[in-house]
Design brief:
single chain, alpha/beta, 10 helices, 4 strands, globular
């Protein structure tokens, strides 16, 4: 989904002031496409609106998959806020590249590579300023309200989702499946795309 309030082609006509508003536009988008239930997947900062949507509109969510979900289970490391601030300042390109690599858990070559994703990240960091509410980790009560099957993927290293502590907290989910992927960082979906695709397909097939 092309997220409102972030880089993309969607035209926003109303302000998004709370995470409940984000849940609302996700639900309205699914309703507009005629989708009664969806297998919802959120990666990184996309994990927060996906999780809040599932909390507030559980009937719409067949399964929920959270891939390195920043801010959902725990606060990101303090260094993340430093690098995020640095990436938005008018600093030399090399500094911004270092900041984006640190946030994404990748090497500099990945940021500087000529690819659609690399170009999007670079241009977005230089030219776009998001106007979205700051997410907060789910409360204990919100976690227990996620009664649909939930799959949580955590990176084995340089996790922005909270690492092993996030994995422990995710095991409180009533129907949760938690997997820590060794040898991966926050960019887990880009690092193990084939293996993750098979894992998600198995997860969806096993759901009621």
């Amino acid at each position: 989904m092309d997220a409102l309030g972030d880089c993309g082609l969607s035209v926003q006509t109303a302000p998004i002031l709370t995470f409940e508003h984000q849940a609302m536009w996700v639900d309205e988008a699914l309703e507009g496409m005629g989708i009664g239930q969806a297998h919802t997947v959120g990666h990184s900062f996309g994990g927060a609106p996906a999780a809040v949507h599932a909390v507030r509109h559980p009937a719409r969510v067949a399964t929920l998959s959270l891939l390195e979900p920043a801010f959902v289970l725990r606060w990101p490391p303090a260094s993340t806020f430093f690098w995020a601030t640095l990436s938005m300042l008018p600093v030399p390109r090399s500094w911004r590249d270092h900041a984006l690599a640190a946030i994404g858990g990748v090497c500099l070559d990945d940021i500087r590579a000529e690819s659609p994703i690399g170009s999007m990240i670079s241009v977005g960091a230089q030219e776009f300023r998001a106007a979205l509410p700051n997410p907060r980790p789910l409360t204990e009560g919100q976690l227990t309200r996620l009664r649909m099957p939930v799959y949580v993927a955590i990176a084995g290293a340089r996790s922005l989702a909270g690492g092993q502590r996030a994995a422990v907290r995710a095991r409180q989910l009533p129907a949760g499946t938690v997997q820590v992927w060794p040898g991966t960082t926050h960019s887990l979906p880009m690092q193990v795309p084939e293996q993750l695709a098979r894992r998600l397909r198995d997860f969806w097939d096993a759901a009621p």
